[in-house]
Amino acid sequence: MSARRASSVQQQxxxxxxxxxxxxxxxxxxxxxxxxxxxxxxxxxxxRRQLADLGLTHGEWSVLAHxxxxxxxxxxxxxxxxxxxxxxxxxxxxxxxxxxxxxxxxSPDPANRTRVxxxxxxxxxxxxxxxxxxxxxxxxxxLARLTSKERGELAALLEVVISGLDEIETA
Amino acid sequence: MSARRASSVQQQxxxxxxxxxxxxxxxxxxxxxxxxxxxxxxxxxxxRRQLADLGLTHGEWSVLAHxxxxxxxxxxxxxxxxxxxxxxxxxxxxxxxxxxxxxxxxSPDPANRTRVxxxxxxxxxxxxxxxxxxxxxxxxxxLARLTSKERGELAALLEVVISGLDEIETA
DNA sequence: TGTTAGTGTTTCGAAGTCGAAATATTCGAA
DNA sequence: TTCGAATATTTCGACTTCGAAACACTAACA
Lengths: 171, 171
What we know:
The structure is a homodimer of 171-residue chains.
Chain A: H1 9-22, H2 27-53, H3 58-69, H4 77-83, H5 88-100, E1 104-108, E2 116-120, H6 122-142, H7 148-165
Antiparallel strand pairs in A: 1-2
Helix pairs in contact in A: 1-2, 2-6, 4-5
Chain A binds a DNA duplex (30 and 30 nucleotides) through residues 1-2, 57, 59, 76-78, 86-94, 112-116.
């Protein structure tokens, strides 16, 4: 075991904040941002395994999730590429595969022949729902150290941050 | 604008939470997790552009950042692959490129000839520091709606979550 | 209505990533 | 000390992703 166990997430978090501050970052900013990324990284590891069991890649999951959470907004390949941080050309192939497996359906936009609309099939919905139920287990474990009240406070603070995100636009 | 502007981060967040709850997730959990991912996604978009200006890919940045924040722990390619969520074989090529550009240096571990130790060169450190200073601008904007006190509270709550992460291990 | 600029999707070649197998070394037990 | 299992890295072929260019259509304006 290499004479040392890999350092814990906690230790890594502390070292990282210290290094960012030493390199010129503000402490209160770096604590929040680094914590958010540490959490995301760990969750991503778990998702990847769970998704592999369902036969999905991380990228395919983003597509499934966005289609399932888009409300009533019609969704085009370009929009999917934007929200999943991927090139439009990659989305073409990804949708090919997913359509081949019967998870999504492409249909021409009746109002604009340049466009294609993408939506989930019944089978896509089922896969989405079973993934959410599985993921909720890990996510609940992740937040187990917080009381119900604290979760509410945490969510409220994050929501304040999110409410400002649309105005920043790459200033 | 396609008869509709792309929905805002905020609207997307609300729709997503609603959909996850409808699919069987717990609300207090989904609010926190979805908010964390919304924030990460937006930050990733900005980082990608900033890093492109510095001639770095997202993956190369992870390597640079981990080496810079690893404290005094010696770092091997396998460890880098783990913490950046990438296959060990990919790390080989990534390090080849980065070493070619003079950002990192590989040297045999004197204590174990199976191993290779990776560290930043002077040039690697400089690039790290300039990236941190640039990133800090966007990150500060992101948290601009929170008071100093609120940032502290947010960081404290996230740190509680992080402190539990090491014990979950893919239960 | 004809022209031009713009938008949305796909195709294409180059580059990055993956998992499995190959190679080299260490560690523990007989 | 020697054997076998475990660990660390790299090589290999298949697949995914990228950005640029091609293509098809729409929209604005004279």
